[in-house]
Amino acid sequence: MRTVLVVDDSRIMRNIVKNTFLSMGTPCNFVEAGNGREALVQLESQDIHLVLLDWNMPELSGLDFLKKVRAMEKYAALPIIMVTSEAARYNVIEALKNGATDYIIKPVNERSFREKLSKITL
What we know:
Layout: E1 2-7, H1 11-22, E2 28-33, H2 36-45, E3 50-53, H3 62-70, E4 80-84, H4 89-97, E5 102-105, H5 110-117
Parallel strand pairs: 1-2, 1-3, 3-4, 4-5
Helix pairs in contact: 2-3
C-alpha cells in the first residue's frame, strides 16, 4: 500500500487533507509531520510515495523542505504537491521552479485533488 506524507503545522488542516484524499477512494497509509524538519525525519525513516506539503510552517518551511529534498538524488522522482494558501502567481512559480510536482491552493477540495493526482502515479 502507498504511503502519503501530509506536512502541515495545523492538525486540523492535516485531517482535512487526509479526509479529502480518502474521499476519492485511494487506499493508502498516512504519515504526518507538523513542519519541514519533522517531515525530513519521516521521509528518511520510511518508504514515502507522495508528499502533500504546506508552505508556511515553523522550523523549516515547505519551500525549504522542498529544496532540501530535491537536492537529494534518491528523491528526484518523489511527487511533492504543495497544498497551501499561498495563492500568488510568484509563489506557484517559485515552488514549481524548486521542484514541486504540482500546486493546490487551500481550501482543498476533492475536485482539485483528483485533478492533480491524476497526473501522477501512486
